Amino acid sequence: MLVERNSRFRGGEIDLVMRAGSVLVFVEVRYRSSQAFGGAIESLGRQKQARIRHAAACFLKRSFGDSHWPACRFDVVLVQGSRLSWIEAAF
Is the pTM of this model over 0.90? Predict the structure, then answer.
């Protein structure tokens, strides 16, 4: 179930926030039209992952304060040309 999309925070952004049962899922969508510059997965380096984690922490703090946070995971949706792949718990 979609909770929110394009959540922007200072220092990061989350493309999709979804709920899968009791788990909050932060989804990063990476699109590349070709492999020319390494493809979609190569565009998700450590620095980008750190920004997504930071944005997720900001989302959790805004939504739940300092109280009990739900279980969370980080998924990645890769779109390369016409091929789509969804990687659960990618990082």
Answer: no
| Rounded CA separation 75/78 (Å) | 10
Residue 22 · residue 71 · CB < 8 Å? yes
Q: How far is CA 77 from the centre of its chain?
A: 8
Alpha helices in 1-91 (DSSP H): 39-42, 46-64
Residue 91 DSSP code? -
Dihedral pair phi/psi, residue 56, rounded to 5°: -65, -40
Q: What is the pLDDT of residues 34-62, one digit of tens each?
A: 666 666 667 788 999 999 999 999 999 99
* 83: Cα separation from own chain's centroid: 19
CA angle 75, 50, 56 (to 5 degrees): 60
